[in-house]
Amino acid sequence: MSEALAPLPRTVRFGVNHTPRQGWFHSWLDLDLDAVGEDLAAIAAIGADHVRIFPLWTLLQPNRSLIRSRALDDVRAVVDVAAGVGLDVVVDALQGHLSSFDFVPSWLTSWHRRNMFTDPEVVASTARLVGELTDRLAGAPNLLGMTIGNEVNQFSASNHPDPDPLSPSQAEAWTRTMLDAAEERAPGLLHTVANYDAAWLLDDHAFTPDQSATLGAATVVHSWVFDGTGQRYGGRSHEVAHRAEYYLELARGFSRDARRPLWLQEVGAPRNVLEEADVPWFVERTVANVLDCPDLWGVTWWCSHDVSEDLADFPPLEHTLGLFDAQGRLKPAGAAFRDAIAAAAEAPSPAPRGTAVELAVGEDPLLHRSAAAPGGSVFEAWMEASRAGERPTVHVLREHAQARAGDSRTGGAAATRAAR
């Protein structure tokens, strides 16, 4: 195993995923820039330096051959408002899924059903949207980059009610096409792919860890303790407090670039596994623990504002995830995040990590990812080492994976430890 590189001096970026307090993402239908500005000023006031915003695909491209110029102008206007309060912006270029609701344009549904990832006309039209949106934003000095969707990979998942099936090679080709469309219009920015954790933990998922850890300018993770961590170990457990840190180290294990940035692009405090009184503890511990991960680019909290109770059919937790309530008042979670940002300014750069927990995946990307999921052998070994104070990381072991195959949740995939 190669010798660990010395840590580089770094400043971690802190941001917030913006959920508009007025009208949620439906507010793009009748954009109120004054209300947006109030939201963004409140975010800046707690010490955040960037926001991630989510224009809806259905509004940007209501027909496969129609990209609405006015809708692109609206996105640029929000980016400019953010600049006015000192915030940089990341723009999600494809919004197919948000907070349990799908926003897939009508030209991909019912009588017009096509595979969004593999149909050549659909892929070309979608890439055109990514390119034209990026082009409209490229001159903004506060544009950090584009993200490709918000967990759009969920549309391919085997547990989706109406999946768009594809192979890993097709998933990689689609991702490259979308990222290239952004890079061509705004070269050198932080263009990334925003997959949810099935890419890392679901054995049969076509979007793979290797794709997330090699494509785009940074490796993005979305860490949610309602993935079984909170249910299995308890809301105030060591596993819950260290879940995001573990996920970042798992992501690092798949990187082929020793200095590739890691971005905790989504992390939140779900009240379906956390008691309200434990939320400030969770915010503080999560941030403090991920700061011990070398090469951390930033932490972007989910989310800015609670979803209003006036809106129907959301899962109950969506009405509670904000740092601010639906009236714009700072919540204890927001105060904890503000304090964590301030404390991070005094945090030292992390030393190289210690113990390496091995994850055997082989060259076949469909092998043994579930060993890394909550309850899996790799997850358990990492947490055991963490409790012992060993500051573990993950080493992805590709050799001999076939010979070591077995029940990945009971130790069939390697979970041995070796000093780095």
UniProtKB/TrEMBL annotation:
Superkingdom as given in the UniProt entry: Bacteria
GO terms assigned for molecular function: hydrolase activity
Mitochondrion is among the record's keywords: no
InterPro entries: GH (IPR017853)
Bias (Low complexity) ranges: 403-420
Stretches for region Disordered: 399-420
SUPFAM superfamilies: (Trans)glycosidases
Keyword set, alphabetical order: Hydrolase
Keyword Hydrolase assigned: yes
The protein, known as: Glycosyl hydrolase
